[in-house]
Write a structure and sequence with these properties.
about 170 residues; mainly alpha; Multidrug-efflux Transporter Regulator, Chain: A, Domain 2; two-stranded antiparallel sheet; about 0% strand; rod-shaped
């Protein structure tokens, strides 16, 4: 019989039954959810307590149980729970290991991707440096020609115009 049923039988509230059990230290059995479970002998004991209270005895003054009973064990099976907890811990460790492996593989992939990008950038920089060198060589070969034409170009207006067209044709201006 649960607490509510016992309370109805005695004509008191469930909280009153719970208070009696706690304050008097009654060794009542509990079910798998931790709720009190009362047997016939427990109900008789509660009836005796109720009778004493109705006769004017204070709850604190009610004598302890006439015979000492050891607290009863509840319906909870510890061995079964230990196995379940152990199984859960094992699964958690497996999941953590899998998670770490995934994180490592993602990190490795990202590092390889970054390395490829860096190599591509280095190749582009090398190509650009080579193009710059070629352009500098072309410019250095063009400068002596320009200085010669400048001297000639001062006397004649046509040469000056040709130089302008030649330079603009090099850089694509019009």
């Amino acid at each position: 019989m649960n607490t509510t049923e016992a309370a109805k039988l005695l004509g008191v509230s469930s909280s009153t039954i719970q208070r009696w059990v706690k304050q008097l230290g009654l060794p009542m059995e509990r079910n798998e959810r931790g709720h009190y479970y009362f047997k016939d002998e427990d109900i008789q004991l509660l009836k005796d307590i109720q009778e004493q209270l109705q006769n004017g005895v204070m709850l604190q003054e009610i004598a302890p149980l006439p015979k000492k009973r050891e607290p009863r064990k509840g319906a909870i099976k510890h061995g079964d729970q230990d196995q379940k907890i152990e199984l859960l811990l094992t699964k958690i460790k497996e999941i953590e290991l899998t998670l770490h492996e995934k994180a490592d593989s993602v990190t490795s992939y990202q590092l390889l991707q970054h390395r490829r990008e860096i190599e591509e950038m280095q190749n582009q920089i090398t190509e650009l440096n080579n193009k710059i060198k070629l352009l500098q060589e072309e410019i250095s070969t063009l400068k002596p020609v320009q200085t010669v034409e400048k001297g000639v170009g001062l006397d004649e207006g046509k040469v000056k115009r040709k130089k302008k067209n030649f330079v603009s044709s090099l850089f694509g201006f019009r």
